[in-house]
């Protein structure tokens, strides 16, 4: 006998589990939920390999508001997501802020334009001139900096697997089911998807299918005869040790350093007694879904020169760990795609986060659950980042992409 679920979610990492949680927690949704996850270790999931940070410093109001909800949700996570009989989940949220540095007139203009958007949304972000920047973070060389943008609250970094596992545990407690298997085919009849076929051979009937399969989103969509402009792009992260650490030297935020984005695009933030750093590669092609070999050369050619120029504290550093993960990169406009397919209405996308999935997961999960339960967004209107713009080839560009 074929099993049937009201909602089948393809992918059980942070996005899929957020959808499952918000559906299961909504008293207006009384349906059944199945999450299909191919790798229960999540060892190569974008969630597990992410730098897992959150910021409100975006150029589009919708992205600012998505992160504002995410920050509030992360702060209350221990209470909201506690499972009976277990200790409250601790995401270890370090609210250290983001620091964007502008060196050119064009970069300065972008920071000022972005700040106007962020301020209108109520984000706690300030602009600093060179002297203000130097006083706040005296370890930095700032002679070439025209302007800095600093998030005083609502920004920082947290546990990536903690967020995912918290969503998953609470969703299961509330009735969502998880199965370790892989979706190999999706049956479609006209303008509706009707079932998924698993690698195990089981066919499961579905009222709604949610594509939450990260960098493999295009593979899942193709099974239903659909397209989505998402491909895996490799990002290598490096953990470094400093001979003389600058952590504790700031004159703001209790001495804690922020996540700094250098004008070169290199980012760096504290990670315990170490620092985490990375950069988008100069050449950024799509990679194979199973290619997780770090790009070792990026540290010597891109990262270390930029960091050493920015601070004497980063002149004497060494790599103590590194790994590569995948962005589910939206080639249209680097923005999330959340919404129904305009023709196949019971196929919902939650894809293309382009490196922002951890911070946007709470809002995306809530939004998808509202689409399924009410037929429309209720809490935050995500229509601007819906699938329709893909069909119309209408990019919704985000200038603040890292």
Describe the overall structure.
- It comes from Paragemmobacter kunshanensis.
- It holds the Pfam family DAO.
- Keywords: Membrane, Oxidoreductase, Transmembrane, Transmembrane helix.
- This is FAD-binding oxidoreductase.
- One of its GO terms (molecular function) is oxidoreductase activity.
- With 402 residues, the protein is α/β, with parallel strands linked by helices.
- The protein has two domains: 3-69 and 160-230 and 332-391, FAD/NAD(P)-binding domain; 95-153 and 232-328, 2-Layer Sandwich (D-Amino Acid Oxidase, Chain A, domain 2), CATH 3.30.9.
- Helix content is 28%, strand content 27%.
- It contains ten helices and 18 strands.
- The strands form three sheets. Strands 1, 2, 8, 9, 10, 11, 17 and 18 form an eight-stranded mixed sheet that branches.
- The chain starts with a strand and ends in an 11-residue tail after the last helix.
Layout of helices and strands:
Layout: E1 3-10, H1 14-25, E2 33-37, E3 53-54, H2 61-75, H3 77-80, E4 98-102, H4 105-120, E5 125-128, H5 130-136, E6 147-151, E7 156-157, H6 160-173, E8 177-180, E9 183-189, E10 192-198, E11 203-211, H7 217-223, E12 230-242, E13 259-261, E14 267-271, E15 274-278, H8 297-310, E16 317-330, E17 337-340, E18 347-351, H9 357-374, H10 388-391
Parallel strand pairs: 1-2, 1-11, 2-8, 4-13, 11-18
Antiparallel strand pairs: 3-7, 4-6, 5-6, 9-10, 10-11, 12-15, 12-16, 13-14, 14-15, 17-18
